[in-house]
Design brief:
Length: 250
């Protein structure tokens, strides 16, 4: 297994769900992990405690990743604690309402763009100089299969995820010569706390369309992120890697 010894990873929205699984896996491979949280410091502290119990290194860092001042403070604090950031995993997200065309507003679109375009841009702008100077960096965005599926009543989210993929590809072209890779991991429906209200019938209907006929796990996503973060992924950039059991085929 490729190690991340000596690397520092920032994972946004890491106090629960996919973010927590990603933080755990990166730490298990030797990375120092900056666990970003917004609403729940206790959960972030718990996660860091688990990582330290397993022999890893992690600390919680507060920020609303949509706010420049918050990000300035967080990035400064991470650099104070760990000297630099080598890996940035853009995972933070907010509410994801289903809305008909008549219910949609431009503000609803902007809500999603704030998380999937604005926040990653602000973070990259604050870490890219250090990555360039070291000739190494890993930018990993967490996307979604919905861009391929075009889920109905979800256009605000689907459109933002499509824009996120375009941003990933452009950054990859721009940063490739510097040794920085930029990729997007696109999970399918991975059950986490966010889906606590989902019924078994809904999950069965979804898995019926999946080539492998079962749901994935947060660890499946975390393993893919860890691979891209490692030296084994050094020649992969500008790519969208679907982690969805074959629900989309490209």
């Amino acid at each position: 297994m490729e190690t991340l010894n000596g690397r520092t990873a920032l994972v946004t929205g890491a106090s629960r769900g996919l973010g927590a699984a990603i933080a755990l896996e990166l730490a298990a491979r030797g990375a120092r992990v900056a666990v970003n949280y917004f609403a729940n410091r206790d959960r972030a502290e718990q996660l860091c405690h688990i990582i330290r119990q397993k022999g890893g290194e992690a600390a919680p860092f507060y920020a609303d990743v949509r706010q420049e001042a918050d990000l300035d403070r967080m990035i400064h604090a991470v650099n104070e604690a760990y000297q630099h950031i080598d890996i940035a995993v853009m995972n933070a997200t907010g509410p994801q309402p289903f809305l008909t065309i008549e219910q949609q507003t431009w503000e609803r679109y902007l809500d999603q763009l704030e998380f999937f375009l604005k926040s990653p841009l602000l973070i990259l702008q604050r870490v890219v100089a250090g990555m360039r100077s070291r000739g190494y960096g890993r930018i990993i965005q967490i996307g979604s299969e919905v861009f391929e599926l075009g889920n109905p009543m979800f256009a605000n989210y689907v459109a933002a995820k499509g824009a996120q993929l375009g941003q990933t590809r452009s950054w990859a072209r721009e940063l490739g010569p510097t040794g920085i890779t930029v990729n997007l991991v696109a999970p399918g429906w991975i059950p986490t706390e966010r889906h606590a209200g989902s019924t078994q019938a809904e999950m069965d209907a979804y898995t019926e369309r999946v080539a492998m006929k079962h749901m994935g796990t947060a660890e499946d996503v975390a393993n893919t992120v860890a691979f891209l973060a490692s030296d084994a992924g050094r020649f992969i950039t500008g790519q969208k890697i679907s982690v969805n059991g074959g629900n989309t085929l490209e």
